[in-house]
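Quick one before lunch.
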Amino acid sequence: MLYREQIDKSRIPAHIAIIMDGNGRWAKQRGEKRSFGHQVGAETVHVIAEEAARLGVKYLTLYTFSTENWNRPVDEVAALMSLLMDSIEEETFMKNNISFRIIGDINKLPAEVLSRLNQCIKHTSTNTGMCLTLALSYSSKWEITDAIKQIATEINEGKLAIEDITDNTISTHLSTSYMPDPDLLIRTGGEIRLSNYLLWQCAYSELYFCETFWPDFREEEFSKAIYDYQQRERRFGKTSEQI
Ligand code: IPE
Ligand code: IPE
Ligand code: MG
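Model of the IPE complex:
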């Protein structure tokens, strides 16, 4: 029986965040270069984005390039940036009514990449279906530090009082302010860690780790993660009887 047929379509998580890991090891297993893994991984992005939109996911947030990934060999970073340029398919987004966004320390991206991304953001901004966000040059520590700087500035300028700071003040100063917190966080590739991704936002997310390398993560694996999520009870600190 396929997981795809077993999932409850009326209880699809509204926001799914994914750490797309394992491209390099997938390629190495095949005696290929790491960049080949990234190429096939980019195809997976389209497959999963279309599937998520079809299932009715409202927000899909993909960890695409971390702040720490700038420390990879120069040729790998260059290959990833050029792949990013080539794999932004506006037609797929238009066809699926997907609005495209990016979060992260994006001014570090090469100018031509940023301009291509901005063009796509603009063209898809009125789409009313799923919101697909790529986290690029992103890390939670960068994002939280940036939020603190903004809040401190507002306090300095007399626009905000210290006693009025709530957890919502912090959420609204993060780059993810336009989306709800993830219901489900998936990490492919076998590592059991968060690698500086959405640390604040995942305070109460359900976590799902699988061994499958990202290039092999297709519709059925995605449904399996959703199915697993649907078997859980989210208690948010309450007792089972209160739910
Ligand atoms: C994830 O795959 C993609 C990026 C981090 C850009 P990796 O490149 O980390 O692949 P592994 O983990 O080395 O196999
Ligand atoms: C996390 O993967 C970042 C992305 C998937 C973009 P990494 O492969 O960089 O993570 P670590 O360094 O192994 O934790
Ligand atoms: Mg990795």
